[in-house]
Design a protein that fits this description.
The structure holds 2 protein chains of 2 kinds. The termini of chain A are far apart. Chain A is mainly beta. The mean pLDDT of chain A is about 90. Chain A has no helices and 11 strands. The radius of gyration of chain A is 14 Å and the shape is globular. Chain A has strands spanning about 5, 10-15, 20-25, 30-40, 45-50, 55-60, 65-70, 75-80, 85-95, 105, 110-115. Chain B has strands at about 5, 10-15, 20-25, 30-35, 45-50, 55-60, 60-65, 70-75, 85-95, 100, 105-110. Helix content of chain B is about 0%, strand content about 55%. The radius of gyration of chain B is 13 Å and the shape is globular. The chains are: A mainly beta, B mainly beta.
């Protein structure tokens, strides 16, 4: 069965410091991978998605970047964090099936607080 | 731009009551998912509906996809405190794999 891992689970960082959040998927090959940010108790904002190694699409202009160095590894980064980067970051994967039935499965999330 | 509107945004009910959560759009979706999320955790998939008019049941939860595949509802019978959480609907557009998420319904069931 497939599993998705995120780390760290929680992170407190000062403004201006760098960021690296990691997401890995097990049990599947060539998944679509996604990074979302969620405001407290609200819906999900898609930040980046990737359909393959080295292929990154950005949904919103921001202080963040994403990379996919390996098939099942997705990294969210920032060179200098802003206060507004605080939030709950979720990684998700899907099979990328056509026909409109593609379902996303989420990791446990990372709570980022920028002080 | 495809949008999914969920209502109500917040619902507080007593244990044993029934409730319905709605997810509406002016766009057609190829499929629609419902997720449940607890604080500090990732959303967990409850169901995927694909066919217009489709009804799926998961114990006390009943999910329906609208005939035109533009809306969906989640009905919970005899709610329990364990049902408390954020319920998210998500639609996969007809143009590809991109998924649109609703803003969520926060449900609180009091014992």
């Amino acid at each position: 069965s497939q599993t998705i891992h995120q780390w760290p689970a929680t992170l407190v960082q000062p403004v201006g410091s760098p960021l690296s959040l990691e997401c890995t998927v097990e049990g599947t090959s060539n998944p679509n991978l996604y990074w979302y940010r969620q405001a407290a108790g609200r819906g999900l904002q898609l930040l980046f998605y990737s359909v393959g190694i080295g292929q990154i699409s950005s949904e919103v202009p921001q202080n963040l970047s994403a990379s996919r160095p390996q098939d099942r590894q997705f990294i969210l980064s920032s060179k200098k964090l802003l206060l507004s980067d605080s939030g709950f970051y979720l990684c998700a994967w899907s099979l990328g099936t056509s026909g409109g039935t593609d379902t996303q499965y989420f990791g446990p999330g990372t709570r980022l607080t920028v002080l | 731009t495809q949008l999914l509107e969920q209502s109500p945004q917040f619902l507080s009910i007593q244990e044993g009551e029934n409730l319905t959560v709605y997810c509406n759009s002016s766009s057609v979706f190829s499929s629609l998912q419902w997720y449940r999320q607890e604080p500090g955790e990732g959303p967990v998939l409850l169901v995927t509906v694909v066919t217009g008019g489709e009804v799926k049941k998961l114990k006390r939860l009943t999910f329906q996809f609208g005939d035109a595949r533009k809306d969906s509802s989640l009905h919970i019978t005899a709610a329990q405190p364990g049902d408390t959480g954020l319920y998210l609907c998500a639609g996969v557009g007809t143009g590809g794999f991109k998924t649109i998420f609703g803003a969520g319904t926060r449900l609180f069931v009091k014992a």
